[in-house]
Each structure stands twice: as C-alpha cells, then as structure tokens.
C-alpha cells in the first residue's frame, strides 16, 4: 500500500524520522533500544507533570509518539514524587539500562527532543518540574552525589511526616482526656478534680 492510499503512512514516516534523530543521539543502530529509551523518557517525565503540562507536552509529539506517551497513563495518580532516585530507577527499568547509564541516556533523549520540538517548547515543559530533575534531564554531571543530595531531604520529609502524625495523635489524646474529665451533666468528674488539685500542689 502506497503512502497515497495508506492513511497511517504519514504518521509512521514522521515517527521513523523522529526515532532516527533520537537513535543518532544515542549513537545506536538499534531502533528497538531507541524506542525503549523514548518510551522511558516520555513516561518518566509525564508521570511527574500535572495534567495540563502533560497535555502541553503531548501536543508537541508526532501522532504515534503521542500514543506511546499516553500508554498506561493514570491522570488521577500524577504527579508522582519528584525525587531523583525514583526518576532514574523508572527510566532505567523502562529503557532496559542500568541506573548508572540512565542519567546519560535520559539527557541524550532530552537533547534530541529539544531539537525536534518547536523552539522553546521543551523549556516551557521542563520549567514545570523541580530544578534537580531538570538538571538530570539536561545532563548535569551528578554521579553518585544525586543519591547523596536527595537522601537528607527525604529524611527531612519523613521526619516532618512523623512529627505531624505525633501532633495529630497528641491532639486526639488531649480531646479524649477532656471528654473523660467532664460528666454527662457538664460537671467536672472526681478524677478531673483530683487532677486539678494535684496540679495546684505542683
């Protein structure tokens, strides 16, 4: 079937053209690997964007790439956490590369898309994510320090979460204690009077 009679031919041709550019940046002849890297890049970035920003990014993609972009997308579950380790782990898993290679491969795909998108469009999308993820996508040389930098902030977030839970529990216990200190007729119970007397002695 010729391009003139195949309605999908233009979309297939454009997808092959884009994939060839990306494969060239990755310095590979393996189109299957290049496609895995594209899918990994699209999904990993997509999952860290809000719905509006994701739609803006997808509008820049060729038709077949747009299908890949939305494959398995759950808009009610985005954006996912923006930490670098989970970002690189997801990319590595979907691309079929090691985590050590993930940051380099991811940056090469970003570079290819920057050439393929309309001028300034990728910058607009990347402005929607935190600077540390933007740096990974743009190829900053973090190495192992990415993991070291992120660990303290994760610990701080976890500590803040624990502190908040303790505060909620403390408030609940205080409310329960106040409820037990008052009898149904609104008068303080004997236990409450004893407690007040003990506090007065202190």
Features:
elongated; Globin-like; single chain
Brief characterization of the structure:
The chain is 70% helix and 0% strand.
What does this structure look like?
This protein has two domains: 9-142, Uncharacterized conserved protein DUF2267 (Globin-like, Orthogonal Bundle), CATH 1.10.490; 155-201, no CATH class. The chain has helices at 9-26, 31-46, 51-58, 63-70, 84-95, 99-116, 121-126, 131-137, 145-181, 190-201. It is 70% helix and 0% strand. It is mostly helical and 202 residues long. It is elongated. It contains ten helices and no strands. Helix 2 (31-46) crosses helix 4 (63-70), helix 2 (31-46) packs across helix 6 (99-116) and helix 5 crosses helix 6 (99-116).
Give the secondary structure arrangement, pairings included.
Layout: H1 9-26, H2 31-46, H3 51-58, H4 63-70, H5 84-95, H6 99-116, H7 121-126, H8 131-137, H9 145-181, H10 190-201
Structural class: mainly alpha
Overall tally of structural domains: 2
Please outline the major beta sheet.
none
- Return the average pLDDT rounded to an integer: 81
Globally, the shape reads elongated
Approximate strand percentage:
under 5%
CATH class of the largest domain: Mainly Alpha
């Amino acid at each position: 079937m010729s391009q003139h009679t195949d309605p999908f031919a233009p979309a297939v041709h454009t997808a092959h053209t884009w994939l060839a550019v990306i494969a060239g940046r990755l310095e590979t002849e393996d189109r299957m690997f290049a496609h895995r890297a594209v899918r990994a890049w699209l999904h990993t970035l997509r999952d860290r964007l809000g719905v509006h920003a994701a739609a803006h990014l997808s509008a820049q993609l060729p038709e077949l790439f747009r299908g890949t972009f939305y494959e398995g997308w759950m808009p009610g579950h985005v954006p996912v956490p923006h930490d670098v380790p989970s970002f690189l782990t997801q990319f590595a898993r979907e691309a079929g590369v090691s985590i050590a290679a993930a940051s380099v491969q991811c940056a090469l795909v970003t570079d290819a898309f920057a050439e393929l998108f309309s001028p300034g469009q990728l910058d607009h999308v990347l402005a929607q994510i935190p600077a540390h993820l933007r740096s990974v996508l743009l190829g900053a040389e973090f190495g192992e320090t990415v993991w070291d930098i992120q660990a303290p902030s994760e610990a701080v977030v976890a500590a803040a979460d624990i502190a908040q839970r303790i505060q909620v529990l403390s408030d609940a216990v205080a409310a329960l204690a106040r409820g037990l200190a008052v009898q149904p007729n609104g008068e303080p119970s004997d236990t409450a009077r004893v407690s007040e007397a003990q506090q007065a002695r202190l």
